[in-house]
Predict the 3D structure of the following.
Amino acid sequence: MIKKILLTVFVLLIVAVLSFVVFVNTQYDKDYSEEFPVTELNVVADSAMLARGEYLVYGPAHCGHCHAPEDKLADLEAGIKVPLTGGFGLDIPPGKFNAPNITPDKKTGIGRFSDGELYRMMRYNVRPNGHTTVDFMPFINMSDEDIYAIIAYIRSMEPVENEAAPTEWSFLGKMVLALGAVKPGVPDEPVPTKVEKSVSVEYGKYMAYAVANCRGCHTNRDMKTGEYIGEPYAGGLVFGPDNLTDGWIYTTPNLTDDPETGRIYGWTEDQFIERMRAGRVHATSPMPWSAVSHMDEGDLRSVYRYLKTVPPVKNEIKEVATAPAATASAL
């Protein structure tokens, strides 16, 4: 009798597992096209819009940091505007994510897509095929004008044919998609049509929150779903070891103005700018130094002024960069 009960439980368990596997593999690639339709859009650019787009792409929006080939990172950090042909691949538990070619090539780049499809991707994180993905481009709160400027500029680049490797979801990644843990983004503040550039706390908040994504890395998150689980700008998000960090582990520092644990507490505005201009210290750090080090001075001053207004959080980050075990033992 006991054997029969155990066998029944075992069979039910197998059926439940198989049913869940089928559910995941049939539901993870949900089409969000009806909920987030493509709008008619035709971006018409002038020289000022193109200049703004170029600045954003290679500066604070750091498109180049992901959409340039990995072997061109040094060129980017030297200020060279390399073609954004894709090739950057991040291998993490939810899958291997590869940045696509965003030059206007009609076969392998954005030349295949409409302005409306590109806008939907940047605003809502919904791809041209209607599927969503992890929010590596968190531009949901960016102004319409800045999104248009980015679209206009990447349309103006020289087209380069390069078929970047497709993203490959792991079962874990498919599972979080199927269960709705990863879904399209929705602006959490009223979307501005335009944000006037100024050296101010308000503009610094816009740059840090909606453009440069300082919050996205300097706030602790669940790396399986992308959900924010820490206090804003208090650091603690762990990167690596993975294929991009060469065995190193990086933990983002606390940027709040806590007197005991805040990384930039006590820094003057000029000291902050000096550090941002200095660029990379660790060769495999995930910080997009190629973009930050080339931001204009007014934008950096605005970000500094905004960070000084963020409520202080006591969160000690003991090691920002931890060497691989073999390297550390040799030091």
